[in-house]
Amino acid sequence: MTPEPLLAALSASAVPVLPVVVVEDAAGAVPLARALVAGGLPVMEVTLRTPAALDAIRAVAAEVPECLVGAGTVRSARGVADAVGAGARFLVSPGCTGGLLDAMEASGVPCLPGVSTASEALALLERGVREMKFFPAQAAGGAAYLSALAGPLPEARFCPTGGVTAGSAREYLSLPNVGCVGGTWVAPPAALAARDWTRVESLARAAAGLCAGVRRGGAGSAQV
Ligand SMILES: O=C(O)C(=O)C[C@H](O)[C@H](O)COP(=O)(O)O
């Protein structure tokens, strides 16, 4: 069964912003998810970069069902299995290999494999994958680069991540080939370390306000 495309769903939602979080303390994951939901962003990508990540996914999946929790920094078939086993409802990777894509597709949950070049995007399109993460977005060329890909690769839809900020999110979202934007600016490591959920909620609310209603791409506008 082909899972529901993630970017299409986020793009169609009121607020196409994907908070990326690096969780050092699994005990903070539930209040973090609740703060994001309260701020208007009911989705969270937990990067598999810390020992606490899988417990964090497990806790949010069990206790905050209104938050769509997924895993980021998925780099291997093992990471796919661990993340889905913990309850991840989507998977995001910084780059992609054939083996990783096989595992992601077999997982049964929506995936955003990472690319940063036209050739990598073409390789995914060749496999029938139209939704991808563009990483590291800012360092790889930013909105100008993505805009340039829209001509030759009109069917590809991207989630730019890596260096995206409150200041650049709207510019990305105004591109026809961007379905949502992602990043840690909504839940910065310092706020998580301080367990400052009020700050996270207010950053989420600001991001939601900033990005609501921006004209954007997404599967709905994907004309091939
Ligand atoms: O490796 C992955 O799969 C990732 O999830 C990478 C993250 O999306 C970015 O590292 C977030 O970048 P910043 O928003 O600039 O902090």
TrEMBL record:
Q: Which GO terms describe its molecular function?
A: 2-dehydro-3-deoxy-phosphogluconate aldolase activity
Keywords assigned: Carbohydrate metabolism, Lyase, Schiff base
Q: Does the keyword Lyase apply?
A: yes
* Lyase recorded as keyword: yes
> Which reactions does this protein catalyse?
2-dehydro-3-deoxy-6-phospho-D-gluconate = D-glyceraldehyde 3-phosphate + pyruvate
Report the EC code(s) recorded for this entry. Answer: 4.1.2.14
Q: What class of enzyme is it?
A: lyase
> Where is coiled-coil annotated?
none
Question: Of which family is this protein a member?
Answer: Belongs to the KHG/KDPG aldolase family.
* Complexes and interactors: Homotrimer.
Official protein name in the record: 2-dehydro-3-deoxy-phosphogluconate aldolase
Native organism is Streptomyces thermolilacinus SPC6
